[in-house]
Amino acid sequence: ALLGLALCAVSGAAFLYRDYCVIGAGPAGLQAAYFLQRAGRDYIVFERSHAPGSFFALYPRHRKLISINKQYTGKSNSEFNLRHDWNSLLSHDRRLLFRHYSRDFFPNADTMVRYLEDFASLLKLRVQYNTAIIHVTLEKNEQAWNGHYFLLTDQDRKNYKCSCLLVAAGTWVPNVVNFPGSEYVEGYETVSINPEDFAGQTVLILGRGNSAFETAENILGVTNFIHMVSRSRVRLSWATHYVGDLRAINNGLLDTYQLKSLDGLLEGDLEDLAIVKDKKGKLHITLRFYLENRNVSAGIDSITLPQDELDNFATRAPYDRVIRCLGWKFDFSIYNRSLKMMPGKGNVKKYPQIKPSYESKGTRGLFVLGTASHSVDFRKSAGGFIHGFRYTTRAVHRLLENRHHGVPWPSTVYPITQLTNSIIKRVNEASGLYQMFSVLADIILLRENATAFEYLEEYPIGVLAELEMQTGRKAHSGLFVIIMEYGRNFSGADKDVFYYNRAVGEAQHAWQSNFLHPVIYYYKSLPTEREMRQRPPEWPVPRPAAIHHIVEDFLTDWTAPNAHILPLRRFLENCLGTDLRHFFAESCFLFAFTHQKLPPSCQQGYMRMQGLVGSRELRHHAVQAGLLQDYTPTDSGGDRPPDSHDGSEEQLMTDHGIPVRPLQHLVNAKDE
């Protein structure tokens, strides 16, 4: 605590020191602050606005979120219900569930602002508002956690110093495409949201994401027509299974386009466009190469337009307004070159380059959280959204706890007899596995001789090879990896996800499952870095020694005894070379005399004088199911009650020609 309050004098400047600095008090920054505070760590959050969640104070412009807020699931399990609550942050306080703030399935963004304010205040998170970090650099120091300190400067030239930097500033810089005439384009961030301002107008929208369709949806009923142009074809979220693609709530323009109501979609490279304004203020679309060696300001009459050569050119009608809705990108400007914060390549160039552990590729100790970390799973999972990064933020916290404070990744040790039950429980209720499918995985580390196992929840699968170093846990005797996955060929912009035989219902065809379902991978040893790099395309992990798909389920309820549990148990038994069934005491008693090795349930239960006491009803059920032979005498023997089991073990032994010996003597003999 004293260290956290210390002012460090460096090169004549005073630095307020904290172990952890968090940039941004949006959802990811507040989630990180919560975990740091619960762990008792020294931290501070810097927020440039006067309140948390400043992004949601402005966006989405038309105020309706596309993150679902499902009030009812038919279940009371809070972990399961988070699968269908895309807005709540993780905390111990039940008051801070988003369903207490709104009953709307798609809530208003103002409600999110209020929720984040309450999250920060009720949990007393240490957020410093009205503090815009304008410069970040490094100071080399061998005594620092990562070999350097991070030096931060705010808008008032105040200086801060920290050992670990968590960047949760989001992506908030608008994407802008520059082309001749782009000065006539209005931005999504400033365009009017009053539909009456567009009455009787013809509008061109640049972009094809949710912000573009959200804007179109708002003015659909008052415009002459709307055209939308983008480089790529429309990607429907129900086809791609990616929540960042076009959602049904915004896709009204697709109806009016395909049902011949004047609106339309076009594909084209925006950098090839040019806009020319005529004397009446109308905006004409042309192509850049028509303007080469031309003076745009000379007037439209002197400029060749596409319709001059192709009289049915699609965008030949002039527009009243052109609106840019191209999304946002990360702000790289505040980071000194020493941090090597570089943009990604290709379709992730709007995000900084990070490892699957969410640590910067260029600087140790710098982690990117929240939306800006989405390069790890862009267009694959939910890491760019609250219902995804609340779990990846927790994963980063656990990695840091192990690295800097010697606190191993949380785990639970169970006897091997609980292996099947543990997996079934998690795949049926775990929200992190469900939301961050193909990215976060449960890891089961087997103990020696497979008598017990250690269960780790929601580990980033991209750093599986580093598991021992990152978690402080050992994987000497093999491991299982549990991941939720869609079918390999079931997601894509061009996929028909409604075809007739799209679902698989039989366990023997589980590997062909299309919808989200659990997949269990078995490895005899921890995969290496090389194996991770050389894994098959679209595989989250390398090829295992064995693999098992639990067949998809229409209710996402994987508890069917024959379709789900039995095939899983047999898979686990084949991997371990053991019998994971649970046996009645009578069966264990018989096995003790007829087998050299007892099943684990007998070793860990019956032979230790443990287990449930039988009853008449339980015995009758077992006999009816064929699990036990009926040794109940047909003659009750005078005063002996019909349901008495005295002498049943003796009867069992006599039937098998085994001399009767006291049970305690048997237990002692086994111990010897």
Give your account of this protein's structure:
This protein has 672 residues and is an alpha/beta fold. The protein folds into four domains: 227 residues, FAD/NAD(P)-binding domain (3-Layer(bba) Sandwich), CATH 3.50.50; 145 residues, FAD/NAD(P)-binding domain, CATH 3.50.50; 165 residues, no CATH class; 39 residues, no CATH class. The protein is 25% helix and 18% strand. It contains 20 helices and 23 strands. Strands 1, 2, 3, 4, 5, 6, 7 and 17 form an eight-stranded mixed β-sheet that branches. The protein has a six-stranded antiparallel β-sheet with strand order 18-20-19-21-22-23. A five-stranded parallel β-sheet has the order 9-15-10-11-12, covered by helices on one side. The longest helix is centred in the middle third of the chain and has 20 residues. The two termini are 56 Å apart. The N terminus and C terminus are likely disordered. Belongs to the FOXRED2 family. Its cofactor is FAD.
CATH domain fold name of the largest domain: FAD/NAD(P)-binding domain
Based on secondary structure, the structural category is alpha/beta
Oligomer, anyone?
single chain
Biggest sheet record: 8 strands, mixed
**CATH homologous superfamily caption of the largest domain:** FAD/NAD(P)-binding domain
* Domain module count: 4
Note the beta-strand portion.
15-25%
Radius of gyration: 31 Å
Overall shape: it is globular
The N- and C-terminal alpha carbons lie at a distance of 56 Å
**Mean residue pLDDT:** 89
State the helicity in percent bands.
10-25%
User: What is the overall number of helices?
Assistant: 20
Cofactor: FAD
Protein name: FAD-dependent oxidoreductase domain-containing protein 2
GO molecular function, one term: flavin adenine dinucleotide binding
Function: Probable flavoprotein which may function in endoplasmic reticulum associated degradation (ERAD). May bind non-native proteins in the endoplasmic reticulum and target them to the ubiquitination machinery for subsequent degradation.
